[in-house]
Design brief:
The chain is an alpha+beta fold. The chain has a domain at about 40-115. It has helices at about 40-50, 60-70, 85-95, and strands spanning about 5-10, 15-20, 55, 105-110, 110-115. A hairpin with a 2-residue loop joins strand 4 and strand 5 (about 110-115).
């Protein structure tokens, strides 16, 4: 648009607009959507529980020892690399959880809910 006058109609009224210069601008559009996922607080809690809480059922005795220690005082291994049970527990969680879990999961263990974090200085490839 060159310098000049322009009439614009907005909300039923006409306005005279004078342009002295023009500038190209990039318009960014941000879209947000929302989808109702539950009709009540209780149904929302059930939905979140079903989607995000991993139920640890029938752990091996070694896995159970790790979970029991983690619940009471925290579990630590001071070996060169994590035990096979630690690796199996991690793989069990990876198979059932979101890939972006980043080594922290919400679990239902023995009827109680916990946040479980597994970490190691080495990557698990076993």
């Amino acid at each position: 648009m060159d310098e000049g006058e322009l009439w614009v109609r907005w909300e039923g009224r006409a306005y005279q607009v004078t342009a002295h210069r023009t500038t190209a601008m990039e318009k960014l559009v941000h879209e947000y959507t929302a989808e109702r996922v539950a009709e009540s607080a209780e149904s929302f809690r059930e939905l979140i529980s079903d989607r995000h809480i991993i139920r640890i059922e029938s752990p091996t005795p070694e896995e159970q020892a790790i979970l029991d220690a983690a619940v009471t005082d925290g579990y630590h291994e001071t070996t060169q690399s994590p035990s096979r049970a630690w690796h199996r527990l991690l793989e069990r969680l990876r198979e059932t959880a979101f890939p972006e879990a980043h080594y922290t999961w919400y679990i239902d263990y023995d009827g109680e809910w916990y946040t479980l974090s597994l970490s190691s200085d080495e990557s698990c490839t076993n």
